[in-house]
Amino acid sequence: MSRDTTYRPEASRASRPLLWIATLLAIVTMAPVAWLVGLSIKDNRELMLGTESVFRVPYTLINYINILYSSQAFGWFFNSMVVAIGQTLGVLVLSSLAGYAFARLEFPFRRTIFVIVLFGLAVPEQAVIIARHQMFNWFGLHNTHIGLILPGLSSAFGVFLMTQFFKAIPRDIDEAALLDNASQLRIFWKIMLPLTLPAQATLGIFTFLHAWNDYWWPLISATRKEMFTITIGIASSQQNFAQSEGLGFLSAQAVFASLPVLIVYMIFQRHIVTAVSGGAVK
Fold first, then answer.
1. d(Cα 170, Cα 166) in Å, to the nearest integer?
2. Domain 71-277 falls under CATH 1.10.3720.10
3. pLDDT at position 282, please?
4. By the 8 A CB rule, do 102 and 163 touch?
5. How many other CB atoms sit within 10 Å of the CB of residue 204?
6. Could you read off the pLDDT of 177-227 as tens digits, one per residue?
7. CA atoms within 13 A of residue 197's CA, in its CB half-sphere
8. Residues of the chain with CATH 1.10.3720.10
9. What DSSP line would sit under 158-217, residue for residue?
10. How many Å apart are CA 220 and CA 276, to the nearest integer?
11. Tens digit of pLDDT for each residue in 61-112?
């Protein structure tokens, strides 16, 4: 049976409003990004006279060159990269193990513990910030990479996502592996884990983005300038920027800080589409 591929003009006309809405949303979303890039390639002296100069030539790359030679942005960038990668790897490992246990294993109080974990979705970070600050102060973890990474490892969303994904995998796969005398660890590592790559890619991207853009906890935990993450470092540079470093230089730092997020999304976007479409398990 062949599909009807006849062109219908009325269907095309009905989709035009949606196309216009999508185009408008794309313009609204990209306009601040284009403005930021424009500011980053303008001379600071011109921007001090008026930001409308962003619409006319000349343009320059001097702000990006200054990042290479006279900026602490690389140190902040390194701190953010360590924290983001550490949190992403930790969340993927812990969430995958917990999700597999909740979805495929039987143990006492499994449902109760799972509900307690889900309560973490309802508790805002601000509600526990004082207790967390005191605990990290007692253990001397402030102004350390470990202190910046640890709070992000408890991901209730990650456990929930991986649990639901493991539940969607047919039980026949487990039974076939058990017939071949495979252990639970081998089933998890060799069979189940590869099937969850789309979900792990999605969770990894969300975790990386959250860790990279996090401002609240690094603002509290990192009090020494050399331990600033990129978000705290750029925010600290905004004070009296017109008299010190300049708006163009600050914009160049923001563009520089956005590159890892763009690269990560471009690499793993195929896995996100697969996870959302439900095509991970055939």
1. 9
2. yes
3. 44
4. yes
5. 23
6. 887 777 888 888 888 888 888 888 888 888 998 999 999 999 999 989 889
7. 11
8. 71-277
9. HHHHHHHHHHHS-HHHHHHHHHTT--HHHIIIIIIHHHTHHHHHHHHHHHHHHHHH--HH
10. 35
11. 888 888 877 668 888 989 999 999 999 999 999 999 999 999 888 889 989 9
Look at the block and give the residue holding tokens 């592996």. Answer: 177
DSSP string, 136-168: HHHTT-TTSHHHHHGGGG--HHHHHHHHHHHHH
CA-based radius of gyration for the chain: 24
Query: What type of residue sits at position 157?
Result: F
Q: What SS3 state is found at 10?
A: helix
Amino acid identity for residue 183 in this structure: S
Q: Which two tokens stand for residue 107?
A: 């143990």
Number of Cβ atoms within 10 Å of the Cβ of 10: 7
The tokens describing 160, both together, are: 């929930």
Which residues, in sequence order, are CB contacts of 17 under 8 Å at separation 6+?
none
Indicate the SS3 state at residue 42. coil
**The pLDDT of residue 281:** 46
Distance from C-alpha of 241 to C-alpha of 250, rounded to nearest angstrom:
8
Closest CA to 48 of 246, 249, 252, 255: 246
Q: Take residue 16 and report the two structure tokens written for it.
A: 């035009």
Q: Is the Cβ–Cβ distance between 247 and 51 less than 8 Å?
A: yes
Angle between helices 230-237 and 73-104 (to 10 degrees): 140
